Amino acid sequence: MSAQGMGDECNAELDRVIKERRTVRAFAGGELPRETVESILEAGRLAPYASIAIDDPLFRRFVVLPAGGKALQRAEDIIRARMGMRLEMMKAQMAKDEAFREKAARYVGRIEALSGGGDVGFAGVSCYIIAAEMRGFPPVEERSLAHVMQNMWLKASALGLGFRLLSVTTMMADDEEFCSLLGLPAGKFAFDGCVIGNPKVVPPPPERASLDEITTWLD
């Protein structure tokens, strides 16, 4: 096959993965081979970063909490407790600020369900992955973590696995107990997280505006 033909084939495969990527919220359970998880981590390791902001070869870390382990259960307990505390603070603010109450009502409903025993996001997953990026100057670590999650998501999709961002992870980077569980110093890293596993239900593609509707070309 010619280089052009191979390039076309690779582009077609990349287009397929991007189009088929979904947020999976229902997982079927089951373990994943360690090498499969590591291939997803490797995709995250290769994501771009702002080299001017930090000067440490260990600026990016990954922590994997497999399903069924004590660490994952402990992480769930800590997250649930912290969300309960956050709920009380937000309710107090809502009582004083009508505009905030209207804006935050949906989010508060989600936190109420979570802190009251609802699924944090771990039901049926194979593992919970925390990606940590060292804080630096300028503070662009959250952008780097977005690239990490993007790479990992695409890799998981290419492998036919389910992937879901667990945005609550971002709030835990300064939590002493959570960071101690991960073996990382509180406040030194920014966090983002995801869960992966065998998908139980793959949702249909979301409705989106066409490219023509959202693109402006300026001469």
In short:
With 219 residues, the protein is an alpha+beta fold. It has seven helices and six strands.
Task: Please describe what this structure looks like.
By secondary structure, the protein is an alpha+beta fold. The protein folds into 2 domains: 22-74 and 120-201, NADH Oxidase; 77-115. Helices cover 47% and strands 15% of the residues. The chain contains 7 helices and 6 strands; from the N terminus they run H-E-H-E-H-H-E-H-E-H-E-E-H. The chain has helices at residues 3-20, 34-45, 70-96, 98-115, 141-158, 176-182, 211-214, and strands at 26-27, 60-66, 127-134, 162-165, 189-197, 199-201. The chain has a 4-stranded antiparallel sheet, with helices on one face. Helix 2 (34-45) packs across helix 5 (141-158) and helix 3 runs antiparallel to helix 4. The longest helix has 27 residues, at 70-96. The chain is globular. The chain starts with a helix and ends in a 5-residue tail after the last helix.
